């Protein structure tokens, strides 16, 4: 294991009993790259500590869905301006896919919107690193949208 372990919390739905929670916890602990896993049946959450060089968020989510339940994500829409070419769309999608906790994104050139699916518990690093790619992204008022916006800050042309 490396010294740069990550910890993630996942909201899950469909955990029906203590046996399911225990099975899920053991399955996550058995993954190569996890150092700890805790399942909270009452809150329907799972906390996993893992090595990001060996596992990705998608691997952890697959392990959860393979055992018993579904991972709950949040979805936001962000207005994006000054996109003129399909390359702008690709640049924004690529920037979004590099962010921890982003589980899906779709950017629509004609509506000038980015549709982002993400894990609301994975917010570390979203406010301290910025990607510049030349499109105008207005500052949203919603807290979750602001975290994504801070990662995709605007750069004047």
From TrEMBL:
<dbReference type="InterPro" id="IPR006121">
    <property type="entry name" value="HMA_dom"/>
</dbReference>
<dbReference type="GO" id="GO:0046872">
    <property type="term" value="F:metal ion binding"/>
</dbReference>
<protein>
    <recommendedName>
        <fullName>HMA domain-containing protein</fullName>
    </recommendedName>
</protein>
<dbReference type="InterPro" id="IPR036163">
    <property type="entry name" value="HMA_dom_sf"/>
</dbReference>
<feature type="domain" description="HMA">
    <location>
        <begin position="6"/>
        <end position="72"/>
    </location>
</feature>
<dbReference type="Pfam" id="PF00403">
    <property type="entry name" value="HMA"/>
</dbReference>
<keyword id="KW-0479">Metal-binding</keyword>
